[in-house]
Amino acid sequence: MKVIVMGSGVVGVTTAYCLLKDGHEVTVVERHDGAADETSFANAGLVAPGHAYTWASPKAPKILLKSLWRNDQALRFRLRLDPALWSWSLKFLDNCRAERVAVNTARKVRLCLYSQDMLHEVVEDTGVAFDGAKGGLLYLYRNPAAFEAGVAKMKILTDNGLPLEVVDRDRAAAIDPALQPTKDRIVGGIYAPSDESGDARLFTRNLADWCAERGVRFLYGTTIRGVETAAGEVTGLLTDKGRLTADAYVLALGCQSAALAKPLGLSLPIYPIKGYSVTVPVAGRNNAPRIGGVDEENLVAYAPMGDRLRITATADFAGYDKRHSPADFQTMLGAARDLFPDAADYSRPSYWAGLRPMTPEGTPIFGRGRQRNLFLNTGHGHMGWTMSCGSARITADLIAGRTPAIPLDGMQAVH
């Protein structure tokens, strides 16, 4: 079967890989000049089932409200005359109820664990390099009350099969000696020994090269202008380079998915939530973290990536605006330097801001569109890297008519 995958982020490229392994003739269409040049470009790098909690939580409305006059909140709401933002936000608030949080988080962690297994299979099969770091991740707390709350809520993850260990500051410093000089700044943490990290862009680009060498066609610099349909199926893609046809089509365009799906009669509840990252070199420094983690008080994630350290933070409800200034990164840099003062050369930052394709529930969208040969693999939010390989296998199974390995309750398109 001929299959066109729309999008060459980590989700699109892993989907192309799974379809190739199933014996399909695969073409990937991408408007950028290479793979992983959008959301996958400089994300947090954490493969983190241990951080699968949904962002929509009982605490979120208060944080968003405070962000209207304070710029130091982990979630920041920007008032905009954007009907899509208000519609999406109302759905997000509806998912902040405790019962919805439990359901959505359980679905997320199941997908994350399955996807991590699939990631290991992909790496074993292809040997792609991506500055991967195993050994777990640490979720660190500075405040006793927050630590207690974090321990209480982790039950939903352990009930779904994720091993977690509650650690005091000494145990945390033993797990990652980089914390030894500053362990008095934390009260403890949660250690997820099976979590890991790696450079999603490096993984995606190397996997794209591996796929291209085996026959997958990548059409970079090609913008999709429209989708042709007839008799309940997609009959072709209209691009700035000409018309493309296939037997099946996969929508994996991240934040652009909703706009393309709308003329096809499908309303996808996906909205861009901006995140910020800064990458600093570790050359010449002697105490970089051995493993990644999250400073939970500040919601600042960090991940070692070979000779670099990636630091990420903030969820900005700001539409499609990707602009940023050095001031946007000061809080996250300050938190990282406080925990790891000699981890990297903080005077040489590389700044980036990107858009996460979020659904109100925090789970992605799979299944068919209104057209029987259109399949969806989109809306992965802040966990596209963690969820990518499992989502790709699910999509390939659906195209083949196989039942996916995990239930897709609440994660299929509503027509």
Automatic annotation (TrEMBL):
Alphabetical list of Pfam families matching this protein: DAO
Cofactor: FAD
GO process terms (BP): D-alanine catabolic process
Binding site for FAD: 3-17
InterPro entries listed in its UniProt record: DadA (IPR023080), FAD-dep_OxRdtase (IPR006076), FAD/NAD-bd_sf (IPR036188)
GO terms assigned for molecular function: D-amino-acid dehydrogenase activity
Sequence intervals crossing the membrane: none
Annotated ranges, domain FAD dependent oxidoreductase: 2-398
Keywords: FAD, Flavoprotein, Oxidoreductase, Plasmid
Domain of life: Bacteria
Role description: Oxidative deamination of D-amino acids.
Family: Belongs to the DadA oxidoreductase family.
Protein name: D-amino acid dehydrogenase
Organism from which the protein derives: Azospirillum ramasamyi
